[in-house]
Amino acid sequence: MLLYLIPIAAALISGTATFWLRTYFDRVRLDLSLVSIIKKRDPDEEVKIDSRLVEISHDFAAGPTVNESARDSEMQEVYTSAKKVQESAEGQIKFARELKSRLRDCGTKQDKVEFLQDLIGDNLVFREINNGLRRHDLTIHRPAVGPEDLFESKRGRMEGRDTLRLEFPAFYHIFSYDVPSDYDRMEPFIEALKKFDIELIRKCLDFAINAIRQDHSRADVLTGGLEKTINSGPFKVDLMVVNRGKRAAVLNPYAALKTTGATSALPPLPLRIKKIVDSRGNEASVPEASFASIEPQAAVTLTLQSDPVEDSSPLTATYDKDILGCSVVLVRVKKNSRGGTENKVEETPRKDFGAKLDKELHDQVLSLASPR
Q: Looking at residues 265-294, what average pLDDT do you find?
């Protein structure tokens, strides 16, 4: 009897061992590596803008406007324009005053043409005059008949827009406008330039000086308010994941960024898997309330993103000034022996990221490359 039982037992043990070995080698095995951490939005990402900033931007003649729901790129454009006005306003007011003082000294045709070339160049003074005329903030009458015209003006079209080309002896300038009424409001100003009507030109320069002062004040508010919104952008994390197992890995779409600053650990930052990019560059977004899946023997990049983070938060303050020790915690959903599911924590090795990382990497390479 024993002779019969031994082979049966051996077969059972062998079968069980084979089952567990196959289960072990077929299991999901993830290799995780942090690739990058940045703090910014996508250019097309929608941003909510404070209604007061929206109102001020619509009064800001020296730059584009922004609405309460705007793309990040639009918000950045308004911020950049406001910053330029902040930096250039004082110099441009000085420039306008210098033009005013030159008016009476322009006795020859050459003097007048050189003056006009300076006036209609790429500067804030001329932009404020142009915007004031188009917005009805500045109104001037057609000058009386005077000396011969200093230049010719010709209407035309360019890139689908109506244009007005000012042709001087040695250069030209092109205005473009969207509606005929823009030309109607610009025409008296063009005639004033042609006839070099000193009083009308002085009126335009006085308007420009006052408008620059007003836009300078608006720019201060816009840059201060928009800077907070810009700096509250989310953290984005790129994570390389290799599934070396023979089963698909199913991941909870939510993860966490663990960080250790210069003095202590900071609270974990919630992240969400936004997309998966395979080794060929194919992207797949991960919808809300959906799990993320990584196929067997696949190498992918996960892009994770946090909610907006205030620039006053300890995480932002440390990241913007120092080095953070960072790791990402993922949760893999797996079947248990009872047929149910359980959660398994997967964590990347810790790496350094932050404002000083670029210099640290630069110095590290030089140190390793130096002769020993």
A: 91
**Does residue 92 or residue 324 have the better pLDDT?**
92
Structural contact between residues 62 and 127, judged by C-beta atoms closer than 8 angstroms: yes
Q: DSSP state, 166?
A: E
Can you spell out the DSSP letters for 22-50?
HHHHHS--EEEEEEEEEE---TT-EEE--
248 with 210, same domain: the answer is no
| Helix, strand, or coil (residue 342) | strand
Q: What is the CATH number of the domain that holds 268?
A: 2.60.40
Residue 225 has pLDDT above 60, yes or no: yes
CB 291 within 8 A of CB 343: no
pLDDT over 80 at 172, yes or no: yes
Q: Report pLDDT for 339.
A: 66
Q: Report the domain count for the chain.
A: 2
> Is-contact 299 241, C-beta < 8 A?
yes
Please state the pTM of the whole predicted model. Answer: 0.70
SS3 285: strand
Range of the domain at 212: 46-230
Buried b (16+ CB within 10 A) or exposed e, 206-245: ebbbbbbebbbebbeebbebbeebbbbbbbbbebbbbbeb
CA distance 150 to 106: 13
Q: How confident is the model at residue 262 (pLDDT cuts 50, 70, 90)?
A: low
Residue that has been written with the tokens 């999901």 in this structure = 28
159 found inside a domain: yes
Q: Are residues 217 and 253 in the same domain?
A: no
The pLDDT assigned to 143 comes to: 78
Do 52 and 159 fall into the same domain? yes
Residues 62 and 206 in one domain: yes
Q: Compute the distance between CA of residue 77 and CA of residue 51 in angstroms, rounded to an integer.
A: 17
pLDDT digits (tens, 9 = 90+) for 310-366: 877 888 888 888 888 899 999 999 877 676 788 899 999 998 888 777 778 877 888
CA–CA dist 147, 99 (Å, integer): 21
pLDDT at 265: 75
> How far is it, in rounded angstroms, from Cα 149 to Cα 193?
9
Rounded-to-integer distance, Cα 235 and Cα 318, Å: 13
43 close to 65: Cβ distance less than 8 angstroms: no
